Amino acid sequence: MENMNKKEYQKYAERKVPKPTYFKNIIYAFIIGGTICIFGQIIMNMLYKFGLDEKLVAAGTSIILVFVGSFLTGIGVYDEIAKVGGAGAAIPITGFANSIVSPAMEFKREGFIFGVAARMFNIAGPVLVYGIGSSIIVGILYLIFTKGR
Questions:
Q1: pLDDT in tens, the chain (149 residues)
Q2: Record's superkingdom (predicted)?
């Protein structure tokens, strides 16, 4: 191996790198993401049974899913789900909750106030800024393109 030139080493390295399993990853993402969506639909159906209107059901469903995602992250379960589900676990609103809580949990040894809570807001700031900023841009584009209708 010491006598290899760069091209030979590159070919050797390419043979050793594991090939990605795209199809398996797509299936797992579909299953995990679909399961999260089914869970959200069950929550919506239950909230409708309480006689809530559409806006309250949508808000309540989002709140419950964020809480469940945060809770599962806090007890270490959501990270395991995300390892299997990939984008299927990252894209729903539970993935947003995970992205806020997960970094904060790394600092729990510093205490809940100066560790978890402080880090949660450090991480949440940029996420909220970009989320709100992109929603404003999408809203403006929506108004521009649907104004004539």
A1: 567 788 888 888 888 888 888 899 999 999 999 999 999 999 999 999 999 999 999 999 999 999 999 899 888 899 999 999 998 998 888 888 887 777 777 776 777 677 766 666 666 667 777 777 888 898 889 888 887 56
A2: Bacteria
- Report the candidate in 117, 87, 85, 89 with the shortest Cα–Cα distance to residue 104: 117
CA distance 145 to 130: 22
Q: In Å, how far are 33, 82, 100 from 126, measured between CA atoms?
A: 25, 22, 10
Counting Cα atoms < 13 Å in the Cβ hemisphere of 122 gives: 13
- Residue 99: burial class (beta carbons within 10 Å; 0-12, 13-18, 19+): middle
8 Å CB contact between 88 and 36 = yes
Query: CA separation (Å) from 109 to 104, 115, 122?
Result: 10, 7, 17
Quote the CA–CA distance of 106 and 100 in Å, as a whole number: 11
